[in-house]
Predict the 3D structure of the following.
Amino acid sequence: MKKTICILMFMFMVFPSFASADVLSWKQCVKTALSNSGDLAAAKEKLNKAIAAKNSSISKVLPSVNAGAGYSRNEDREGYSYSISGSQVIFQGLRNLFTILASDASLMAARAEYEQASALARLNLSLAYIEVQKQQESVATTEIIAQRRKQQLELVELKYKSGKEHRGAYLNAQASMAQAEADFRQAKELLMLAKLKLARQMGAELNTDFVADKQDESIVAAEAPDFKAEAMNTYEVKIYQANLEAAKHRVMISRGQFMPSVSASASYGKSGDTWLPQNESWSLGVNISLPLLSGIDRFSALSQAESDLKTAEIDLADGIKDTQIKLTEKFINLKSAEDDVNVRKKSAAAIEERAQIADAQYETGLMAFDNWALIQDDLVNSRKSVLLTAASYQAAYSNWLNAIGRTMEDEAE
């Protein structure tokens, strides 16, 4: 543990502080992550690559135009020339059209993949922020517990010295005090670690000189949705749908290889011994080509494209079912965490009341130490449990938002 503390302290000295205020809000975390997250930057580059591929597919249906100029010289004469030529694909078995449509579908998949990456980044950031909040509460709670254990030790010590309590009770109170101090110390160390992890998720320089703003602790009463309809709006299913559309277009591209290609070309130029040359030349042409024999390559390509289409159809059907199950599981976990919070709060209120009564009874000698110590242990465990269940609920809710596709950009709105 001492080694861990030394490493953490070294990191704090090496990396500069946040330029932001001492209190760090959730919105600030999101804003910083949107600007600095390496994961999001990598996802954006993949999206840019898909956009470039779409633009490249469009360029194939546009006319090609070239211009040229020339100069030559030999022993007794000079020559000048310039020309402009162009060509245009008129028909290619609709392959260019379906290439554009396939690229468009791939771009849709890339957008969905980026949004999926953004949703995952939001989830990781949220869980890190929740962990900081939990550890902040843990530090405060363990400090209160340590203070309470100290007061209890002083009370038991007075009774022990006056002969009203046995040595075992006194040693037990000392052990409880030592445990409370250890819990408090460990909570502070875990808080430092949680802040470092949050800074990492934001893409910021590592630092712990901030306090996470306390979020609303109210329970969100989420109603059970139509899980199948909700699944259709998730990024996973959108990716499957886009892949299916791309597979359909690739089948049409393969079929287009059996159809003729038609293109037109034109050129115009001048040449001569002087500048500007006067001898004109021009040409117009239409080319038609029909593949007759190329082995079995075209048939193999069509067969592979049709197999990919069937696979994409199966993937979409299974993906909808898997996503529906995942949404159901996340929602059940959310409602279970909500129930745990409500039950734990009621139980904690009862234990707090019982502990206050027990304190008064033990101080006046109406309760034995063993019973009183058990009640105090229940109180400590109850406070820790309330903290853990609250954090578990926040994590379950964040996971539910991730499942239905809440992105980093959504949080920034």
